[in-house]
Amino acid sequence: MSAPADTPRPVRHFEMPSSLAGKLRVYRFAIARRLVQASVLVLFFGTAHWGWKLLGPPLLAGNLSAAKLAGAVPLADPFAILQVFATRHAVAGEALLGAGLVLAAYFLLGGRVFCSWVCPMNVVTDAARRVRARLAVRDVFAIPPGARYAVLGLALAVSAVAGVAAFEWISPIAMLHREIVYGAGLGLTSVLGVFLFDAFVLRNGWCGHLCPLGAFWSLVGRGAQVRVAFDDASCTRCGDCLKACPEPRVLNFNEAARHGMIRSGECTNCAACIAVCPESSLRLTLRASARPYPVHEPGSRTGFACAESPAFRPKE
Ligand code: SF4
Ligand code: SF4
Predict the structure, then answer these.
(1) How far away, in angstroms, is 122 Cα from ligand 2 center?
(2) 115 CB less than 6 Å from ligand 2?
(3) What number does the ligand 1 atom closest to the CA of 280 have?
(4) Three-state SS for 177?
(5) Concatenated DSSP letters for 28-53?
(6) What are phi and psi for residue 60, nearest 5 degrees?
(7) How many Å is the maximal CA-CA distance in the chain?
(8) In Å, how far are 36, 130, 136, 172, 177 from 194, measured between CA atoms?
């Protein structure tokens, strides 16, 4: 990364390389995310349909809410367990252990790593974003920033009143997973609904505004250890990262410069911003290695807005 500059440097923008190696480098995180998402589904599918085993027991039995690895390691969705708590039904010790293991893993990796690296809906919403970009679709209406946290609270409240884990019944994530692993059916209608909503009504409407599971992982992600580091000295405020980022309100240059990283728990660590940054100002790192830019020293550009950048947004 380059040394601090007292004066703004010329703004360069991302250009897709012409070589295959260059393209693969740009798409490396996207390819890795698709491989992880596909691998999770294949493990469930292979266990359910082809009887895959590991040293005797089923390899990965269950679903995204509750599963067992190799017949020994329980895995559970902590948000599903929270909803069961709300119903005041008893939760088995094994489910609690499974939820604890999953919680610990995502606390380390970044809560919303689930959203961009594991959740099968991510493929649907990424496709919707490409469609709306191609057709230049505009948002039909806006949704307040904290809406998904209200939906999270609503899911818990409905669970308490109805006595069932409410979101698990209507979750398009669970439905898509069920349809892929156990066979296509009516569940795909809600998945289609999310696609149409994201493509033609609101950019990143489901994952970025409404999904209560995303809200839950955003809260966990606030303390996550794997973060996107930001180097203020080399950033020219070209804004290409803002255009690539699927999450509203996550990239804030002033705050990122102050902390040396993107701190928002709503960042999914998808690395789309890293792939397009022409200055290599962004990279995945551990929270402990993030270096805040020395804002009070000569050369500090925190707060600097490049006049050529329409995408620059000052700290709100
Ligand atoms: S961090 Fe964002 S604004 Fe800064 S140079 Fe990279 S892509 Fe451009
Ligand atoms: S800031 Fe970067 S890693 Fe985080 S959600 Fe946006 S594009 Fe993905």
Answers:
(1) 14
(2) no
(3) 6
(4) helix
(5) HHHHHHHHHHHHHHHHHHHHHHS--B
(6) -145, 95
(7) 65
(8) 22, 14, 18, 8, 14
Q: How far is the CA of 150 from the centre of ligand 1 (A)?
A: 32
Q: 């102050």: which residue's tokens?
A: 258
pLDDT in tens, 18-53: 999 999 999 999 999 999 999 999 999 999 999 999
**Which domains are present in the chain?**
28-219 (no CATH), 226-316 (3.30.70.20)
3-class state of residue 121 by DSSP: helix
**Residue minimizing CA distance to atom 2 of ligand 2:** 273
CA of 11 to the centre of ligand 1 (A): 9
Indicate the DSSP class of residue 53: B
Across 5-9, 102-106, 160-164, 175-179, least confident range: 5-9
The pick from 14, 241, 309 for probing ligand 1's pocket by mutation, whose C-beta has the most ligand atoms within 8 angstroms, reads: 241
Cα 244 to ligand 2 centroid, rounded to whole Å: 8
Q: Is the CB of 270 under 6 A from ligand 2?
A: yes
Q: Please name the residue whose Cα sits nearest to atom 7 of ligand 2.
A: 245
The CB of 256 under 6 Å from ligand 2? The reply is no
Give the predicted TM-score (pTM) of the model.
0.86
Of 126, 102, 86, 148, residue with least CA distance to 244: 126
Q: What is the pLDDT of residues 191-242, one digit of tens each?
A: 899 999 999 999 999 999 999 999 999 999 999 999 999 999 999 999 999 9
**Per-residue pLDDT at 244 exceeds 60:** yes
Q: How far is the CA of 236 from the centre of ligand 1 (A)?
A: 6
Neighbours of 11 (CB within 10 A): 16
